[in-house]
Amino acid sequence: MSRYAQLVTLALLCSVALNGYLLLDNIESADAALAEQELALETSESHAEQRRARAPQTTLSQQSGSSNTPDSQGSSSVSDTATTAVMTELNSESISQARAWLAAGEYGNVEAFIQRMSREHFDNPDLLLLEADWLLATQPLSLALTHFYGLLDDNVLPADQQEVLATRVESLRDEAIRALYEGHEWDMLAQFIEPLFQLFPTDRSLILLLAESYAQQQKYILMEDTLASLPPDHPGAEKLRSRMQTAQTENNNEDTFDNSLPDKTLTSRVSLEKYGEHYLVDVNMQGTDTKLLLDTGASSTAINRDVYRRLQRFNRLQMLGLFDVNTAGGPIRAPLVRIESLTLGPYTLKDVGVLVLPRTFSGNNDGLLGMNVLKQFRFQLDQDKAELVLAARN
Question: Among the four residues 41, 189, 193, 373, which has the most C-beta atoms within 10 Å?
Answer without folding.
Answer: 193
